[in-house]
Design goal:
The protein is of the alpha/beta class. It is 53% helix and 16% strand. It is built from 14 helices and eight strands. The longest helix is centred in the last third of the chain and has 19 residues, at 228-246. It comes from Alishewanella agri BL06.
Length: 285
């Protein structure tokens, strides 16, 4: 279930186009214009420099909107909230909610990959699954600064206005909801998919860089649709909630940066905006 991998990097998405398109769109309606950019939350050093379309949108924008306030997310208080909401209370553990079969598979995989099993068992299911995927990305050298943090830092340096489509509490509530799903299924899916990450990386990065929405849909959304509850938590509900902000932006020249999987599909932001009468122009190199 590739959607579990999506937890760790709501991310690495899209495949080729002849015109060297990028995952960036200029969105306009009447006298209102903003930029919508699909992001990858974790990248390797070799993925830089980014496609030029990202700098084009950034340089034309006075304000940046991310999924959430990355400043608050990465400060000590935000990290403490993240950990406290995704860690079991004393006397509880992931071991207690997993079947003996799935627990044995997790223990075997942790020993094989030298994962910190005791730490993983203190995490709730979705956060444990995310951690396992991130550990694999680190092993592959692909867990460095992503598009979002890159432009957050540049925005700070250039005194641009920075904000989030979700409050920190709303953002953390996504993992809260994922942690309520069946623990055996979440962990089993992560274990099944862990060996696929390396093979998928090249396709995903190539896809994201070229902004091929159809490829993204084929690679990820088609499979995710087999798990409607997960799709609703991670994508559909959030996309519709974000539309309330996007359709009421009061100023032009805003760059909106969201995980690339939020763009395609019938409930993706590109279609939702088009259905509201917005004109979308994909930027090229």
């Amino acid at each position: 279930m590739r959607s579990i991998i999506h937890l760790s990097f709501i991310l690495l998405f899209f495949v080729s186009q002849a015109l060297s398109a990028a995952s960036v769109w200029q969105v306009s309606k009447g006298d209102k214009t903003f930029y919508l950019a699909g992001t990858v939350h974790l990248l390797s050093e070799s993925d830089y420099p980014l496609p030029k379309a990202y700098d084009t949108a950034f340089n034309a924008s006075n304000s940046l909107l991310f999924e959430t306030d990355l400043g608050a997310m990465t400060q000590q208080q935000g990290m403490m909230q993240l950990m406290s909401r995704n860690t079991y209370a004393p006397g509880q553990s992931l071991q207690q909610v997993l079947s003996a079969e799935v627990l044995a598979k997790l223990q075997a995989e942790a020993e094989k990959r030298q994962w910190p099993l005791n730490s993983l068992l203190q995490f709730k299911p979705a956060f444990a699954a995310m951690t396992m995927s991130v550990l694999e990305l680190q092993r592959l050298g692909a867990a460095g600064t992503g598009v979002d943090m890159h432009y957050w830092q540049l925005g700070q340096q250039q005194n641009k206005t920075l904000g989030g489509l979700e409050s920190l509490d709303e953002h953390l509530a996504v993992l809260d909801a994922m942690n309520q799903l069946d623990a055996d299924e979440v962990i089993s899916s992560a274990l099944r998919d862990i060996d696929k990450i390396a093979a998928m990386l090249d396709d995903m990065i190539a896809a994201w860089r070229s902004g091929d929405v159809a490829a993204l849909d084929k690679l990820f959304l088609t499979e995710m649709q087999q798990y409607p509850e997960m799709e609703a938590i991670l994508l559909t509900k959030r996309n519709h909630a974000w539309m309330q902000t996007l359709t009421t932006l009061e100023q032009n020249n805003v760059m909106v940066l969201v995980g690339a999987l939020h763009l395609p599909g019938k409930d993706g932001l590109l279609k939702l905006l088009a259905d509201q009468g917005y004109s979308l122009t994909q930027l090229t190199e």
